[in-house]
Amino acid sequence: MKLYDFSLAPNPRRVRMFLAEKGVSIPSVQINTREREQFSEDFKRVSPRCIVPVLELDDGTCIAESVSICRYIEEIHPEPKLFGRDAKEKAIVDMWNRHAETDCYGAAAEMVRNGAPMFSDRGLPGQPSGVPQIPELVERGRRTVDRFMRYLDQQLANNPFVAGDVFSMADITVFITIDFSQRANYQVPADCKNVQRWRDEVASRPSASA
Ligand SMILES: N[C@@H](CCC(=O)N[C@@H](CS)C(=O)NCC(=O)O)C(=O)O
């Protein structure tokens, strides 16, 4: 098995954090997306969408989506369970992870991709050029992330973790998203005290530095 990774990119970090929580290590290859290595012909054979992370299995199968990679790892290394332990918990983890991806990560990506000079003409990942930035999406993304933070703050008022009692994939998705959003100078609203408390706790886990 081989993981195509990039140390500075948020979605590969999700997979690394997940693996660290499991205590699993997989040989990895860096695809430096800042140097446009995702567009090389060799990497396109692994990832036709020119996106990292990708997990290549020993039979050559390539899994090119971070949550799908993590689900595969969960199947072969079931403990600790990071997608929920029973039917209800699995549904709630999935629900929060999807909320986090659509309402938080997606909006954070809008902020970063449409504002940073390094993404000029590359407003979407996996496209070498021809995708102009839309400056209005920076502010819209910021408002959407703020709205998610207020929603999450209520959840964390009564729960230690994003999806309830135990640390899960949903915590990983929100945690890496908050760090990623700082590239657009985003700060969690000061009144979201529960989010701040939760974030400090997650930051102290060894997996946070994976
Ligand atoms: N939904 C995908 C998103 C993957 C993604 O956006 N990857 C970024 C790095 S975080 C990428 O490969 N960007 C390449 C580019 O900027 O062209 C996943 O979770 O795996």
Structure description:
The protein is mostly helical. The chain folds into 2 domains: 75 residues, Glutaredoxin, CATH 3.40.30.10; 123 residues, Glutathione S-transferase Yfyf (Class Pi), Chain A, domain 2. Helix content is 50%, strand content 6%. It is built from 7 helices and 4 strands. The chain has a 4-stranded mixed β-sheet. Strand 1, helix 1 and strand 2 form a beta-alpha-beta unit. Helix 4 runs parallel beside helix 6. The longest helix is centred in the middle third of the chain and has 27 residues. The model has no long low-confidence stretch (mean pLDDT 98). It binds glutathione (GSH). Glutathione binds next to helix 1.
In short:
This protein has 210 residues and is mostly helical. It is 50% helix and 6% strand. It is globular.
Keywords:
4 strands; Glutathione S-transferase Yfyf (Class Pi), Chain A, domain 2; mainly alpha; binds glutathione; 2 domains; 7 helices; globular; Glutaredoxin; 210 residues; 4-stranded mixed β-sheet
CATH topology of the largest domain: Glutathione S-transferase Yfyf (Class Pi), Chain A, domain 2
Looking across the biggest beta sheet, what order are the strands in?
Answer: 2-1-3-4
Tally of strands? 4
Low-confidence stretches: none
Task: Work out the oligomeric state of the chains in this entry.
Answer: single chain
Largest sheet: 4 strands, mixed
Query: What is the CA-CA span between the terminal residues?
Result: 19 Å
What general form does the structure show? globular
Strand content is: 5-15%
Radius of gyration: 17 Å
Q: Average the pLDDT over all residues and give the rounded result.
A: 98
At CATH level 2, the architecture of the largest domain is Up-down Bundle
Query: By helix and strand content, what is the structural category?
Result: mainly alpha
Number of helices: 7
Order of helices and strands: EHEHEEHHHHH
- Helix percent band: 40-55%
Hetero compounds: glutathione
Number of separate structural domains: 2
CATH top level assignment of the largest domain = Mainly Alpha
